Amino acid sequence: MKLNQPHRIVALVLSLLACAWLGAAQAAEHKDKGPKLNDHAALAGMHEAKALFLIDVNNPDKVMHVVKVIGITRKQLEAQGVKPHLLVVFVGPDVAFLTKDRRGIGYMDERPVATIQREIEGLAHTGVEFQACGVAMKGMDVSPRDLIPAVKPVGNGFISAIGYEAKGYSLVPVY
C-alpha cells in the first residue's frame, strides 16, 4: 500500500511521538532509580566488620525477613570490599523457630519457619555464625539436640553478646 503525502506526514509524526514517549519513559525509569547507593562514608578505611545481631522478635515472618536482610548485609559488605564477621544470637521465644522437628509451630507459621531454617543453613555455609540462648531454650523446652545443625547452643545469649561486644563486635539489636 502506497501512502500519500498527508498520510506519510501523519505516520512520521506518530513515529516521532512514539520514539519520544519511549525515550521519556526510559529516562524516567532511570531517574527513579537515582544514584547507585553505597556506604563508602561509613566504611571508609575499614577492611573488615564485626557485627552481632541480637534477635528477639517472636514473629516468624519478621525473623524470616531479618535473616534475609542479614544475608543481604553480608553480600553488600563484601561488594564494598569489607570482610564481614557476622554473628546472630537468638534470645527469647525465637529459639523455637530453630528446631529440627518444629514442634509447637502452628500451620500458618510453617512456611516462614522453613524459610528461616533454609536461610540460616545457607548463610552458615558463608561463615555467618548462629547461636541460640540456653536460657530461652530452657524456657521454651527446647533441647540443644533439637536445634538445626547450623545453630550452636550457648549458655546465655546476653552473656554471648557481652563477650562479643568486648571483642569488638558492634551490637545490632533486633526487637
Automatic annotation (TrEMBL):
PROSITE patterns: PROKAR_LIPOPROTEIN. The lineage of its organism: Bacteria, Pseudomonadati, Pseudomonadota, Gammaproteobacteria, Chromatiales. Residues 1-27 form the signal peptide. This is Sulfur reduction protein DsrE. It comes from Acidihalobacter aeolianus. SUPFAM superfamilies: DsrEFH-like (SSF75169). Keywords: Signal.
